[in-house]
Amino acid sequence: MASYIVATTKxxxxxxxxxxxxxxxxxxxxxxxxxxxxxxxxxxIQPRYIFFPHWHWKIPQEICDVAECVLFHMTDLPxxxxxxxxxxxxxxxxxxxxxxxxxxxxxxDAGPVYLKRPLSLDGNAAEIFSRLSRxxxxxxxxxxxxxPPSTPQSxxxxxxxxxxxxxxxxxxxxxxxxxxxxxxxxxxxxxxAAFLEFGGWRFEFSQATLIHEGIEARxxxxxxxxxxxxx
Length: 231
Known about the structure:
Strand order of the largest sheet: 2-1-3-4-6-7
Shape: elongated
Low-confidence stretches: 227-231
CATH superfamily of the largest domain: Formyl transferase, N-terminal domain
Helix content: 25-40%
């Protein structure tokens, strides 16, 4: 029986994995902590593939030397290599994207492509990531069933820069639609919410809806943190 590993930490992927692994053929193993991704663990399992949905850490070459590693990236590669693809896409006005399944190579997001599938960017980040997760596990099932060859990326790369938490502040100069997009693109568990600071308080925005008069949103008010203080 063939073995497979899924390495992911995001809650939406963990939820989808539990459903997928219960009915998929083969022996499936989950790695949900970065420190558990070791050569020793991989050699014990001897997987046909290691799948990496929404994985933030660098994948060591020694892992790739032991097993075929497949990464999923939310852009039509080579466009959009780099960090924060969802936020970078929405800021640029995209309403649709492609999800690329690629083989991991030393250069970030530069590996050859197994397959691509379209993805809508409607809704808030939580809704998009949930939709993405379902699509990724469909792609995993297809790769396992068909073992498609990977082909080199075609075209000139365009690079995205990973966003910082400080960039979650609502922009002072923005249209109503840009404000709405800013709130929704950060509205997911584990992401820094869109915010404003006033006096000693921090106002965090979520669940935004465009209405005729403007935007309706949930606002969480908490004490403003001093620099260097962590949550």
